[in-house]
Design goal:
- This protein has seven helices and no strands.
- The chain has 204 residues and is mainly alpha-helical.
- α1 runs antiparallel to α2, α4 runs antiparallel to α5 and α5 runs antiparallel to α6.
Length: 204
């Protein structure tokens, strides 16, 4: 299904180009070619946007666990770099791969804060930006890094709970639509229909 969705814009574009080649009118051929090109660009852009949203959603789902693992590693006595290396070794996912990329950047000469800032720059997730800011402040001012990471993990979990509650509220409203417009009219009809039949039979 995913492969079909990925290739569907190209298939539509190919079909339009075939129609353009088979048509005798040059104007029709040009119009179909332009429509095929626009359809391919728009379809690919939508697919890429969806892939980015899905990837960021997976990163956000992984973030509380990653932050807790980092907090445990730091509380056990490891530094920020050692904790990141341990977490990237034991975890698998989009966020752990981004952390591995940040560590690779740090090994090539960038500071840890700059390398982590690259993660925030490559995504549009607010919690990751706050994560980088928290690590930067903890490293620069010497504040306990484990407490900062635990607090950020708790914030992300609370945000996830709020998002679930909002999604549940919207779905609850959506579920009321078939109840109000389908189930209730049928129920009222079944309740009134015998009475209407009786009235019609009793009428002279």
């Amino acid at each position: 299904m995913n492969s079909l969705r990925r290739w569907s814009p190209l298939l539509i574009m190919f079909a339009l180009l075939v129609l353009a080649a088979g048509s005798g009118s040059p104007v029709t051929a040009v119009a179909l070619s332009v429509a095929a090109a626009l359809g391919g660009v728009i379809g690919r852009d939508n697919l890429l946007s969806k892939q980015v949203r899905d990837r960021e959603a997976r990163m956000l789902a992984e973030f509380p666990t990653i932050a807790d693992l980092l907090a445990l590693s730091v509380a056990a006595g490891e530094g920020a770099v050692g904790a990141l290396e341990r977490v990237t070794r034991v975890s698998h996912g989009e966020l752990s791969r981004e952390l591995g990329r940040a560590l690779a950047d740090a090994r090539t000469g960038a500071s840890l804060v700059q390398a982590l800032q690259g993660i925030a720059d490559r995504t549009s997730l607010g919690p990751l930006a706050r994560f980088v800011d928290g690590i930067a402040i903890a490293v620069e001012r010497g504040t306990p890094l484990a407490d900062v990471l635990r607090a950020q993990a708790a914030d992300v979990r609370e945000a996830g709970k709020r998002a679930l509650m909002e999604s549940g509220g919207r779905k609850e409203i959506g579920m009321m639509v078939p109840v109000v417009f389908l189930v209730m009219p049928v129920t009222v009809l079944f309740a009134l229909y015998p009475g209407l039949i009786a009235v019609n039979l009793a009428a002279p």
